[in-house]
Automatic annotation (TrEMBL):
InterPro entries: Gloeo/Verruco_rpt (IPR022519)
Keywords: Signal
Segment forming the signal sequence: 1-24
Protein name: NHL repeat containing protein
Amino acid sequence: MSIFKAARFALAAGLSLSATFASAQVYGRPPTATGGIPSGRTTIYGFAGGTDAATPKYVKLAIDSQGALYGTSAYGGANNLGTVFRLTPPGPGQTKWTETVLYSFAGGSDLANPQAGVVMDTSGALYGAWGGLVYKLTPPGPSCAPTAPNLWCETILYNQAVSPEAVPDSPLIFDSQGALYGISWIAIVGVFAGVTPTEQDFALVTKLSPPGPNCAPVAPNLWCAASLASFDMRAGSIANLPSIALVMDSAGALYGTTPIGGAGGYGTVFKATPPGPNCTPTAPFPWCGSVLYNFFGADGQTPAAELTIDSSGNLYGTTLSNVFKLTPPGQDCRPISQNLWCETTLYAFTDPLGGSASQAGVTMIGGALYGTASQGGSAGNGVLFQLRPPVPPSTKWTENVLYNFSGGADGGNPLGGVIFGPTDFGFGAAIYGVTATGGPAGKGVVYQLQCKPQTGEIYGGAQHVVCAQ
């Protein structure tokens, strides 16, 4: 069994993993820190800029079956307009990860300065969207003869400039049929509330479909795009909004956030439901859209990141001021005001040492939540944190700061979320993510924090994956 498969098996089985973390501003395999404490924090790559990648922003890394990591950078590359990069873990007898720029964006008919990451299909191709374009990157092979300096081939699947449908400025997600979904931001000038001209901002849930029985692309586009549902963000500004991924439940419904608008003016959590017993669409959209929760400030403000859904259908996410949980109506939830679901603040970013201004979603492993805050911490350059669920009879979630970014060689300002994958040197799991600043050249880093196996770690009545100091 490969290390990657073993780690995935351990996580799926609910085995308890624990780690001790300390700063290790090195590349590859972490050394033992002074005092005999194993170092768990590793900068596995520092971006150099120039022809190398630089400044990955709202990027959650993708990982393949061999443990290689993929992402985008907003700058760097052959044209300094951004890249798609790969990091390959060390092979036998090696200690360093290998970074490769797979593609340099060129602007013009190509996109430029992407801030959203990529998603991988079952054949190893990568997909992304930015600036009105949806692209596919294919590794060399019978259908791909790359042109220097690029090592992979790019295909533009959809260009909204030649079609009326807006396309996402967000990370994409797949459904079981191979279609892609994302969020588009759009401003429309028209008659709103009897006032004209008025600019109104909307979030569109967009579906991108490959050619088939339900898709006959119009040239030059190779795929089809459709706006499924719309959410009014009211008058505001969609300029510089972060890229926010959707999440899909087992019934095919999609959930997302808007960082502005809503009844309270501080953003919303929404749901887009496909037509069926629970949805009778209203023209012109083929799906039903509903706002599940409106933030009013005291309960959180500016939810600017993707959500996580648990096996019970609860949603977890972050705003600039807190980490929250949304519960559907039922015995433990009686919604109030203009909301359809109930919100619980699990942790408020009131102590700067615990981080602040989270612009990344949380990842749930074994009942605990893991995420980043782009500011705060002991050096003011952000933190990687863990939230542990309550141990009865307590009802309080507990924050554990796993790492304080210094803004120096170890990176700073982590804007993207985290993923779990295998370690590069043994059985167990590790957390991976990117920072937008810091590193040897000040262009950001990819970091790793190890989670080593440890038995007997129990809270909430069951074993869990735990990454703790």
